[in-house]
Design a protein that fits this description.
CATH topology of the largest domain: Aminoglycoside 3'-phosphotransferase, Chain: A, domain 2
Number of domains: 2
Number of helices: 12
Number of strands: 10
Distance between the termini: 41 Å
Strand content: 5-15%
CATH architecture of the largest domain: Alpha-Beta Complex
Helix content: 40-55%
Radius of gyration: 20 Å
CATH class of the largest domain: Alpha Beta
């Protein structure tokens, strides 16, 4: 349990801004005075510890804090780090009362700090990195998981057309497009030959399940991308919308369920911890959305393949010197084990 506390502490909170991530604070201050409601300065900038992708900063000013998310500096893969899309989706969802940070302003002028960025509200609460929730009493854990699952179900029940996101993505062929995207991302950042990845790139497109619904999908919905109320087991903000689009909600749903087969919960005593089983979590989601539980093996193979694309992208950023986090090298080392795990589930789904 002490290890879990250390993990939460290690990744939570802020630190001084790394030299390679420094920005022109005086120029940012001038821009915020013109574009961010409620900002008066003076400005103090810190960097959040967690996160591998878009560098994220805490901006402290007189009586109020804000958060800045920006694209990484340097050469980027096509379609990656879409700051403007993040800003658009949290703006739309916030207007519907969905738990996201308030979107204040977007800047697409690289001349301000060297990359596009947006400013959102600083939501005060708790972020949990250890899925066994060692810092929480047993009676709170089940409710935290329930709130997490119900919040995802709520996201998937929005009609994109009715909230101004009809063109946020192409509604059909979601898995085909995702497989193509992550295959290209993998190729664009490839640093080694991995046999299982080659097999997956061939097998996944030919075995795609039928898409039955279209919804807003988050793309990386997991425990540490959620802020919970500090005193109640309630989601107050969902973070990191970089991979969001229109697509098949089964992608998000099965990605969430993977937490039960990955390190953290896979070997945990769920009953003693008072954490719902995967079947119970699935039932909560299905009851909220009217969905049916699919055969999970293909979806697990797909989601693990996506993770391979992500970790390989991090490996490439290490090579290029643009990785956003000192933990990036550890994440990059997961590429081969994730590929092997993905192929294992592909075989369970019938791959040969």
């Amino acid at each position: 349990m002490a290890e879990g506390f250390r993990k939460d502490e290690e990744f939570s909170g802020t630190r001084p801004v790394e030299e390679r991530h420094r920005i022109d604070e005086s120029r940012l201050d001038r821009w915020m005075r013109k574009h961010v409601e409620g900002y008066t300065g003076p400005l103090t900038v810190l960097q959040f510890k967690g996160g591998q992708s878009n560098p994220t900063y805490k901006l402290d000013s007189r009586g109020r804090s804000f958060v800045l998310r920006r694209k990484p500096f340097g050469k980027l893969l096509p379609s990656a780090h879409a700051i403007d899309r993040e800003y658009r989706v949290i703006s739309a969802l916030g207007q519907q009362g969905f738990p996201v940070a308030h979107a204040f302003a977007l800047c697409t002028d690289d001349a301000v700090i060297g990359a596009a960025f947006y400013i959102m509200s600083m939501e005060e609460g708790r972020v949990y990195w250890d899925p066994t929730l060692p810092s929480q009493p047993a009676e709170m854990r089940a409710n935290i998981f329930c709130s997490k699952v119900e919040t995802l179900a709520r996201l998937h029940m929005f009609d994109p057309d009715s909230i101004g996101l009809a063109d946020f993505g192409r509604p059909g062929n979601y898995f085909a497009r995702q497989i193509d995207r992550w295959s290209k991302q993998y190729r664009g950042s490839e640093t080694q030959y991995v046999q299982e990845v080659e097999k997956l790139i061939e097998w996944l497109p030919s075995t795609i399940p039928e898409q039955k619904r279209v919804s807003i999908v988050h793309g990386d919905y997991r425990l540490d991308n959620i802020i919970f109320d500090a005193k109640q087991p309630r989601v107050i903000a969902v973070l990191d919308w970089e991979l969001s689009t229109l697509g098949d909600p089964m992608s998000d749903f099965t990605y969430l369920l993977m937490q039960w087969i990955r390190p953290g919960l896979a070997d945990a005593d769920l009953k003693t911890l008072n954490i719902p089983s995967m079947d119970k979590a699935a039932q909560i989601y299905c009851d909220c959305t009217g969905s049916e539980l699919p055969d999970l093996n293909w979806y697990f193979a797909f989601n693990l393949f996506r993770l391979v694309g992500m970790t390989q992208g991090i490996a490439a950023r290490i090579r290029d010197g643009t990785a956003a986090n000192t933990k990036a090298i550890e994440t990059a080392k997961r590429t081969v084990p994730l590929a092997k795990a993905s192929w294992k589930y592909a075989q369970k789904a019938g791959a040969r």
